[in-house]
Amino acid sequence: MAEPADYPPFQLGKPRFEQTSFYGRFRHFLDIIDPRTLFVTESRLKEAVQLLEDYKHGTLPPGVTNKELWAAQKIKQAIIHPDTNETIFMPFRMSGYIPFGTPIVVGLLLPNQTLASTVFWQWLNQSHNACVNYANRNATKPSPTSKFIQGYLGAVISAVSIAVGLNVLVQRANKFTPATRLLIQRFVPFPAVASANICNVVLMRHTELEEGIDVLDNNGNIVGSSRIAAKHALLETALTRVVLPMPILVLPPIIMSILEKTSLLRSRPRMILPVQSLVCLAAFGLALPLAISLFPQMSEIETARLEPEIAMATASKTVVYNKGL
């Protein structure tokens, strides 16, 4: 029986969907963040790992389909770290990012925040992000823990200072009516989180700008280390991290300001928080795969735009580099 077109011939360690198109990357990341993998049992995980081992050693039992192999790889990649082979703690998996991150987003967007609540939610958000980054880090080249702590502290300080500073400015703005002031305050989390994300990228990856990152030719061979490619990689990552919180922290305040004027929520104010939670969940679920699909994981650049020694070291007109998370 013919297999569905959605399941091409299985390739171990390769994405199931084409990575050269935005749609292909979008479908790939939908697979990665699929929260259903959070409910995979230990026995099912062992089965998936064993099936991939059998494929690797050419000892697959008869009748195993491409669909089963892709499903097994999806389970393993969602739960087990590729470098350490250790199980990633559930709240810090990419598949757990939306379910465990949504309550934090709801907290960030609560109206009438006090100074203490603003500081708490910004700290909690950056702490969750730091744990996700660390749990999904590239562990092939051991990086000192101090670098993660430096990035974490920089992100927390920038997020808290910008959020508190903007809230104070809005409260002191006498030109605004109380309703306008409340509406503006709802948008404060976005610039705070976006700036913290950029700060985190720069602090944790600034050495790449000095040392460069590996660029590879068409055959996957390392051509050399390029600082120019590192600059492109950091810009792409920073842009992704600015785009990511935009729909999550901008759309819900706009939608809620409209919904709160409806007779349904006016007569039932207790429903505001559950409705806001659903709006945040929908925005988060849409924004995450869209943002991380903007650029390919392996980005391409013309050798002519890189350092002369890189261009001279290969006959390829283009090389690729790992953008990073």
UniProtKB/TrEMBL annotation:
Compartments reported by the entry: Mitochondrion membrane
GO BP of this protein: amino acid transport; mitochondrial transmembrane transport
Coiled coil: none
Protein name: Sidoreflexin
Keywords of this entry: Amino-acid transport, Membrane, Mitochondrion, Transmembrane, Transmembrane helix, Transport
Superkingdom assignment: Eukaryota
GO cellular component: mitochondrial inner membrane
Family the entry assigns: Belongs to the sideroflexin family.
Membrane-topology annotation of the record: Multi-pass membrane protein
Spans traversing the lipid bilayer: 151-170, 182-203, 242-259, 271-292
GO molecular function, a single term: citrate transmembrane transporter activity
